[in-house]
């Protein structure tokens, strides 16, 4: 997993509420156990027409979305089933952070474990972002701060352990492995 310390990017906005994990990555793409290539299926039912052609009306198919690493969405993002493929698809597409006023708990947990930063902000900040697609924003994970191009800066909550793992580019297993010498020392001290 790549460390995540700061993100400076334009935003791509999907101004819809209750975007569930089946909309993020439809169930028919859940047969894979690998993360690679899932970005092509991200929002597949919205991105592609029935004949497989790109829907030019969908924001991710527009030139302005290319290279954006920050997705801004309406309230209750990531609701629905607990599929880990949803953050995998976002990451494979190139998204490093999702911003909303409300992010579903299981989606948040899966995101943090896989290197995607879910950020919840207040209504005022969310409204500004939703109405200014393509805004260049700065995310500073070390200071838990989001800065808008207007200079307005807001803090966002994140669990200390998840923050540590993201900053260091490790998952839970990587964290445990980093403590291997401490674990072995503890076990040796309790040998019978």
Quick synopsis:
The chain is an alpha/beta fold and 192 residues long. It is built from eight helices and seven strands.
Key structural traits:
alpha/beta, 32% helix, 192 residues, globular, Aconitase, domain 4
Describe the structure.
With 192 residues, this protein is of the alpha/beta class. The chain has one domain (6-189): Aconitase, domain 4. Helix content is 32%, strand content 17%. A seven-stranded mixed beta sheet has the order 4-3-2-1-5-6-7. The N and C termini lie far apart (38 Å).
What's the helix and strand layout?
Layout: E1 6-14, H1 21-24, H2 44-47, E2 70-73, H3 85-93, E3 97-100, H4 105-114, E4 117-120, H5 123-130, E5 136-140, E6 145-147, E7 153-155, H6 160-168, H7 172-178, H8 180-189
Parallel strand pairs: 1-2, 2-3, 3-4
Antiparallel strand pairs: 1-5, 5-6, 6-7
Quaternary state reads single chain
The number of distinct β-strands equals 7
Give the full name of the CATH homologous superfamily. Answer: Aconitase, domain 4
Let me know the largest β-sheet: 7 strands, mixed
Report low-confidence residues grouped into runs of 5 or more. none
Which architecture would the CATH scheme give at its second level? Alpha-Beta Barrel
Secondary-structure element order, as H and E? EHHEHEHEHEEEHHH
Strand order of the largest sheet: 4-3-2-1-5-6-7
């Amino acid at each position: 997993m790549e460390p995540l310390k700061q993100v400076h990017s334009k935003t791509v906005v999907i101004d819809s509420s209750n975007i569930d994990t089946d909309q993020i990555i439809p169930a028919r793409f859940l047969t894979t156990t690998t993360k690679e290539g899932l970005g092509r299926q991200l929002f597949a039912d919205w991105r592609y027409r029935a004949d497989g052609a790109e829907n030019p009306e969908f924001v991710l198919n527009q030139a302005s979305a290319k290279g954006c690493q920050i997705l801004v969405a309406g309230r209750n993002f990531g609701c629905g089933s607990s599929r880990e493929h949803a953050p995998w698809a976002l990451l494979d597409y190139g998204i490093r952070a999702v911003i909303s006023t409300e992010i579903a708990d299981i989606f948040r947990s899966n995101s943090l474990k896989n290197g995607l930063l879910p950020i919840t902000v207040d209504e005022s900040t969310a409204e500004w972002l939703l109405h200014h697609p393509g805004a260049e924003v700065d995310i500073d994970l070390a200071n838990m701060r989001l800065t808008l191009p207007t200079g307005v800066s807001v803090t966002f909550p994140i669990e200390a352990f998840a923050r540590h793992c993201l900053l260091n580019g490790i998952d839970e297993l990587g964290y445990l492995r980093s403590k291997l010498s401490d674990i072995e020392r503890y076990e040796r001290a309790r040998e019978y």
